[in-house]
UniProtKB/TrEMBL annotation, chains A, B:
CDD domains per record: ALDH_F18-19_ProA-GPR
An example Gene Ontology molecular-function term: glutamate-5-semialdehyde dehydrogenase activity
Main localization of the protein described in the UniProt heading: cytoplasm
Protein name as annotated: Gamma-glutamyl phosphate reductase
Keywords: Amino-acid biosynthesis, Cytoplasm, NADP, Oxidoreductase, Proline biosynthesis
InterPro entries: Ald_DH/histidinol_DH, Ald_DH_C, Ald_DH_N, Aldehyde_DH_dom, G-glutamylP_reductase_CS, Glu-5-SA_DH, GPR_dom
SUPFAM superfamilies: ALDH-like
Domain of life: Bacteria
Record-linked Gene3D superfamilies: Aldehyde Dehydrogenase, Chain A, domain 1 (3.40.605.10), Aldehyde Dehydrogenase, Chain A, domain 2 (3.40.309.10)
Family assignment from sequence similarity: Belongs to the gamma-glutamyl phosphate reductase family.
Associated pathway: Amino-acid biosynthesis; L-proline biosynthesis; L-glutamate 5-semialdehyde from L-glutamate: step 2/2
Species the sequence originates in: Geoanaerobacter pelophilus
Entry keyword Transmembrane helix: no
Catalytically driven reaction(s): L-glutamate 5-semialdehyde + phosphate + NADP(+) = L-glutamyl 5-phosphate + NADPH + H(+)
Amino acid sequence: MTIAEQIRQIAENARKASHRMARLSSGAKNDLLLAMATTLELGTPGLIAENAKDLEAGAAKGLSAAMLDRLMLDDQRIKGMADALREVAALPDPVGEVTKMWKRPNDLMVGKMRIPLGVIGIVYEARPNVTADAAALCLKAGNAVILRGGSEAIHSNRAIAALLQGEMTKAGIPAEALAVIPFTEREGVLEMLKQEDLIDLIIPRGGESLIRFVVEHSKIPVIKHYKGVCHLLVDASADFAMAEKIIINAKTQRPGVCNSLETLLIHKDAAPQFVPQIAAALSNLKVELRGDEIFREHAPQAKVATEQDWHEEFLDLILACRVVGSLDEAIDHINTYGSLHTEAIVTSDYANAQRFIREVNSSCVLVNASTRFADGNQLGLGAEIGISTTKLHSFGPMGLEDLTTTKFIVYGDGQVRC
Amino acid sequence: MTIAEQIRQIAENARKASHRMARLSSGAKNDLLLAMATTLELGTPGLIAENAKDLEAGAAKGLSAAMLDRLMLDDQRIKGMADALREVAALPDPVGEVTKMWKRPNDLMVGKMRIPLGVIGIVYEARPNVTADAAALCLKAGNAVILRGGSEAIHSNRAIAALLQGEMTKAGIPAEALAVIPFTEREGVLEMLKQEDLIDLIIPRGGESLIRFVVEHSKIPVIKHYKGVCHLLVDASADFAMAEKIIINAKTQRPGVCNSLETLLIHKDAAPQFVPQIAAALSNLKVELRGDEIFREHAPQAKVATEQDWHEEFLDLILACRVVGSLDEAIDHINTYGSLHTEAIVTSDYANAQRFIREVNSSCVLVNASTRFADGNQLGLGAEIGISTTKLHSFGPMGLEDLTTTKFIVYGDGQVRC
């Protein structure tokens, strides 16, 4: 069979298996996830042996030390994968939830019930733990899943999937509901992205170039997020000690991630007192400041911010800083340069807090809290399957519910339409 | 300017105007819609004059009488458009609704708030009333809208839009939030479908070929529905009088629409008594029956159903009929041949009703009611912007809420992440 034929068959089998997945009880799904966790732990020696093949091939190919570290599995990381499966088992099952129900004038009872999406394709890069994490979330939400990991991790991914599939077979659940694309040619991804009649959703997990490649070639809806240019506005009425604490957390706690702070906006009335304070604190922490003219009047150590700096996701200890004349000017800045990811305000003013919450339409909007909370776990979704900065279907961090849709259910007693 | 440049500018202006739309109060939006309704009624003579140009051009081009009728505006139809605007004004505003809110262990209050999608593109065919209907729904949900109607209706569409835009200007609302593509070349649609950074959603309204054209060429998410192959299962325990009444309604009340019945499934234990009864009733109403072997044993007047008949959306007084051995066999048939649109069961058995509701994952699933209720108005959504048989974002009839998304809102008092 050609690659195209094999991919077609995998997708057809996954579609068929998805009907079985959709009918599984919560108990059966949870038992499966717990059994999968145990089998991963028991299979540690085998997983480490397969992982060694990937590490060897990666070293021979000259992968960077950072890449090799992301690829590496050891006892602790395998234990981590198993624990993540147990956490997914502990989450409430979204399938079957009736999110609302109402009565029509003709006595029809109409409701909306959560159901699985069907078949979900995940395209990801080096880290092999995604194989277990993503599979667990998709299966728990009653879906079938087709995984296409990076070629560097192919032995590890296959070994993990084989253990998980073994537990499915033991439980009488079709293992085709957890498919791994078995070859590493790029043609495999391209063929997968064509199966619009069999795959309901594609989630790419990885860097911007992977995501752009998937969006470019997919006939299937893609949930994506390119970058996070997150803003924080220090209002005139802000508690400056609170603002300093939140800005330092948002910028420095983990600068390389998408919900870290990239642009600081400061109300002009706060600037004379607060700019020197925050500039000193951030400079002490080795954060490079790039400010507009007014910011630099109060913080001469700052470099000159260029137009490009307002667009930039630095992912590093660099912060663009601008003084704004009003809340409206701040919102205009965010609308012009933002990425719809996450924005925060620090304020003591009730009306400004409410306006910021209402009028800033990024996927996560915070008052008096760090942008670093824009994360599925931190917001209370349980595990996170990804984050979306496009507005269709999901917007922001995505949990189990985002792997479902709703159907209309109607209970009648003989009604016909006039 | 080239067509491409003009479309780009329209989309840029709409995007800018969408920020203003998103901040409008419900009162301002409702006042606008009511003013638009009045201006359409007052503008009737002008609309009819512009419509006459389309009718004349259509007749010269040899459009069918049915097409010309769909194109035609008269006093009553203009009154109908105005009343539809008033109905949209009367609907609750989805924007700003907090759909849920919860407290985290660190006392952060986290919620989800409905916000507009942003800019919505509507691509539609002959009927000029879509110009007013679709604009009203998009604007009410706080969006900007770009309309691209059929070339046959260009004068009518422009005249309707001009009246509506006039009311926006009077109210101080940017008229760019209601844009009409001003030329009829196909290039206009193609350019519109490329503006993925400016337009959030495309909704095609029209026949399958229009929808396929849009899906084929769009870089923007498309909400679509190709066809409705709706099924009804008569369970062994069904009240046969109720079943007959519902089947006749579902098949014959309006056979040319997507929620009419196309395939009838009958439990084998019901077949000896019910097949002769329903076959006689439907034959009396001039419905052509195409049955499987067992069905035809009890209804010799039925033609032989072919494999293709199970896939068919007849949109006519034709019904495919099959006798099934069990509820599972019925569900398998629906999974194999269905279009995920609408399915119904007629039963007196509690467990079978609940299983059908849970296990059939089409966009609308009914017990003891006609498939004809799968409609936004009938289900209680108010007006309907369209219907989706793909599961992303919306599934089934779509109302105002489906023209919004949700963002996360977070109220803190200084929390940072550890």
